[in-house]
Amino acid sequence: MTGKARITRRSLVAGAVGFGAGVLIVPGINARAYAANEKLNLALVGCGNRGGNLLDSFLRIGENVVALCDVNQQRAAKTFQKAPDVPEHLDY
Q1: Which of 50, 48, 56 is nearest to 74 (CA)?
Q2: Which of 22, 36, 46, 82 has the fewest CB atoms within 10 Å, counting from its CB?
Q3: Which of the four pLDDT bands, split at 50, 70 and 90, describes residue 84?
Q4: Helix, strand, coil % in the chain, rounded to nearest 5
Q5: Could you tell me the residue range of the domain that residue 46 belongs to?
């Protein structure tokens, strides 16, 4: 059996127990952390093609978009129009 790793029954059970304990512990931590900071404040730098798609996603899930920034106002004009109340910047 050269070059192949052997999995013993003991190592398989130990790995399964460790994974199960992690699954039980991690969701509780994430739930508390999310409740502490219910919404994110996001600033989008580079609002061209991909930035417009990201802005759509951020607005759809209800996050706080606090600033939009792009050095090329022509390229970012469509994105800026999607969120007219959000401040626009040319440089961060």
Answers
A1: 48
A2: 36
A3: very high
A4: 55, 15, 30
A5: 41-89
Q: Where are the beta strands (DSSP E) in the chain?
A: 41-45, 64-69, 88-89
- How much is the average pLDDT of 19-40? 55
Q: How many domains does the chain have?
A: 1
Continuous segment of H or E residues that includes residue 12:
helix 9-36
The answer to the question of residue 31 being in a domain is no
What average pLDDT does the segment 2-17 reach? Answer: 66
User: Strand ranges (DSSP E) for 1-91?
Assistant: 41-45, 64-69, 88-89
Instruction: For residue 8, tell me if it sits in a domain.
Output: no
Is the whole-model pTM more than 0.70? no
